[in-house]
Amino acid sequence: MRRGLSLVVLAVASSLSLASCSSQQPTVAVPSPVITRAVASNLKVYYEQTVKWTDCGGATCAKVKVPLDYRNPGSASTTLAVTKVPAKGDSQGALFVNPGGPGGSGFDYAKSARQTLSEAVNEHFDIIGIDPRGVSKSEPVNCLTDQQQDVLDAATSYPQTPEQISVYQKLAKWPEAGCVKFASPRFKHMSTENVARDFDIVRAVVKDESFNFLGKSYGTAVGARYAQLFPDRVGRMVLDGVLPVDLDLTAVTKAQAIGFEEAFTHFAADCATHDDCPYPGNAKQVVLKIQNFLKSLDASPIKVGSRDLNSSLASRSVFSYLYFSAGDYPQLRSALDDAVNHHNGAPLLTLLDSRSGRQPDGHFADNSTSAFYAVTCLDRKYAGTVDQVSALANQWQSVAPTFGASLAWGMLPCSNWPPLGPAPTKKRTFEKISPVLVVATSHDPATPAAWAKRLTSQVPNSRLLTWDSYNHTAYQQGSGCIDEAVDRYFLSGTLPEANLKCSGM
Questions:
Q1: Is 131 in the active site?
Q2: 444 is catalytic
Q3: Is 217 one of the catalytic residues?
Q4: Whole-angstrom distance, CA of residue 459 vs CA of residue 8
Q5: Cα–Cα distance for residue pair 109/119, rounded to 1 Å
Q6: According to CATH, where is 3.40.50.1820 located in the chain?
Q7: What topology is assigned to 27-133+193-244+434-503 in CATH?
Q8: For the segment 417-446, what is each residue's pLDDT rounded down to a tens digit?
Q9: For residue range 450-476, what is the model confidence (pLDDT) as tens digits?
């Protein structure tokens, strides 16, 4: 996920080294799905469309039309950018992938499949990537200018005085106002339910009877919605780093605040064991010293060219580099050391820019922030008042003193979202489907493991696979045990034993 006014929560994937499994476990075969549901007559023009596939450098690409509004599919359409990376060997069919977000590019993720997916999966599946509606190459919604995004990112993330709160209230209206002005009516139809329906149309376009899917982080929400809408079309589905579809914004945000606080403490403990840690001491001492340093930047920001590294920007930078302990911690430790001991804030800003897509000229490379607001504020409607948000910020300080208040205030833009008429999503449950493989990391800051356990209890016959690590998502992140179990499931339809746990790097 991604936060705008408060903090940035990215759902991305990276490749690290392999690890081994704690033990070999018996496996269970997964039956193939049986297709039974017919396509509604008013959607046949979309399901039966013929698209033109063109070469796009190691892959083929196409544009697929889908209804803008599934409640009135004849009224208007929108276009999705789709890419297919062909299997290197004999293909078992299509594997759809989504790296997360909301706002992440499935198109780009699929194009990088040779690096982000295992050799075995690349050998035997055609990898299909879709930019969800309104994202990146799929008629992107743009609700904020580059300058507005800079202002929002640098805004006080924990307003306390009446003046600060007044300014924050005005800024919190920018995303909604920009979407209304520049992205109507498309931003009103970017729900995850609509995205899942879009994916089923693309499944039909590529002529696969069943839907094989790898969803990471927010991608798990797309997969879960798909499974609720089209249970008889679910093939081999892996949901890695579960983002629940049925929890409200407050519950999701609080859990993430606690998760990132735990990750920050883990980072501090690791930092204390290295010579380039900006502060000496144990984990608790390092936490307090970094917190005090971040607070001090409001009164004494560090000049970096035309920008000021203030508390808000520095906190976002720290937050955005707590995802992957093996790769993120060394970079964050070094950047903090430069800021604390050398009064050089450039490395911390560079880390933040690399995660937010801000380029050296100040232009943001993608529309992920606008897409984040459009999807999140539609999926998880929020009606909290300023007083209620302020109360939550104060409460969350006790369980997440570094990030809790900022994350609470970050919900306020969704309270400004315009009424959109009848809700496109009704309460849904999971019917009996082909077993889904749910993957969790025991100390995932962005998608806590409890969410994966919860989903496993909701989805009949699903299996939970857990990696004992501090990391966001698990597949192709450093555990050979995880990778082997996931690959076996994709390639042969064989699930690991229930509740298998993997340890080590």
A1: no
A2: yes
A3: yes
A4: 30
A5: 15
A6: 27-133+193-244+434-503
A7: Rossmann fold (3.40.50)
A8: 987 655 545 678 888 899 999 999 999 999
A9: 999 999 999 998 999 999 999 999 999
